[in-house]
Amino acid sequence: MNKVILVGRLTRDPDVKNTTTGKAVATFTLAVDRRFKNKDGQKETDFVPIVVWGKQAELAGQYLSKGSQIGASGRLQVRNYEAQDGQKRYVTEVVADEITFLSSPNRKESTGGYQQAPAPKKDNNMSAMGLDEDFHLMADDDDVPF
């Protein structure tokens, strides 16, 4: 079984390219904090290269930027190539088949800048939303207790 699930933040904007057949591929690095502190009491972080293909790659390029928090699941891949100096190089990366936006997405503007995506409209009328009275809407993610 080869399954990887990661949660972290992008260290840079995704680099999106198209193959000669027109399929989109996005690459970026995900900073993932380790669960435990080292012997000096400091948290350590792993920097994991991520590759995403197809529609997910297009969406990553459109909505993700440096600092965006995502969840990524996929498989670990180790590949090799011969460098210009003749040495064999190995690359270990995660080929993600699913990414989940965990922070508010940004939209790239035509000017090259970023703009926060508009927040969805909140409707506090419970019956209009088909919710019973025991269900309580939370103002935003900051109210989640975990």
Q: In words, what does this structure look like?
A:
With 146 residues, the chain is mostly beta strands. It has one helix at 54-63; strands spanning 4-10, 15-18, 24-37, 43-53, 69-82, 88-101, 106-108, 114-116. The protein has a 5-stranded mixed β-barrel. Strands 7-8 form a two-stranded antiparallel sheet.
- Unreliable parts: 109-115, 118-137
Which descriptor suits the 3D outline? globular
Classify the secondary structure makeup into a structural class.
mainly beta
Secondary-structure element order, as H and E?
Answer: EEEEHEEEE
Q: Averaging pLDDT over every residue, what do you get? A: 82
Classify the helix fraction into a percent range: under 10%
Rg for CA atoms: 19 Å
State the end-to-end distance: 30 Å
As laid out across the biggest beta sheet, the strand order is 1-3-4-6-5
Q: Helix tally?
A: 1
Strand-residue proportion = over 45%
Tally of extended strands?
8
